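Service request form, structural biology core

Requester: graduate student, group of Dr. S.
Request type: structure prediction, single chain
Budget code: on file
Notes: please return the result as structure tokens.

Sequence provided:
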Amino acid sequence: MDCTLSLNGDPNIGVFARDFEDVAFVPIDSPDEFRTKIEEVLDVETVPTFIQGSSVIGLLLTGNSRGFVVSGLIHNSELELLQEYGEVLLLGKEMNAAGNVILTNDSFAIVHPNMSSEMCRMIGEFLKVEIIPMSFGSVGTVGMVGACTNTGVLLSARSSPDELDHLENSLPAVGVSIGTGSVNMGSGLIGTGLLVNSKGYLAGNATTGFELGRIEDVFGFL
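Core staff response, request fulfilled:
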């Protein structure tokens, strides 16, 4: 099966959608074929919505099996829809683009290195994860330079050896594969071009065969 996708010709699918194990949130105006492919490849229900009235859902929403973390500027109707699928934590004005500044699975959350200790505590307690403040390739928007599941973490190839060593030594879980790569013909913004869960993945349609191979290797789809 072809594991690449675009949204109206834009390969940055991770900007516009956010997937979890059983559900993916996609823009209200996304075409049927976009929703259908996500449903088939990732084995999820797709839920059309906006966040803050915007289609950039992937930048504003993240979470794990215990709940969703989202911008506190979300509209009431959007919040009520999220709450139909799980518990929701609203971020305040500081770093409220949750999908940008948090990279999480069920064991840990890597967060922007400048995130306040209070926000780190709040996120850690809500998601029941260990918090790891970090940057990769000197980029603090970790949700955009990486993607992760409970078994793998794929980070920008621009990540330094010291950063990768620090992450490996900080992870609370064993058996998590850490690798580097790119999407969409060399972009280090992994999270902008990749949707992945334990059942499959979709990369932006500009992603090369070599890049797809790295994704499959790190997340165990080979």
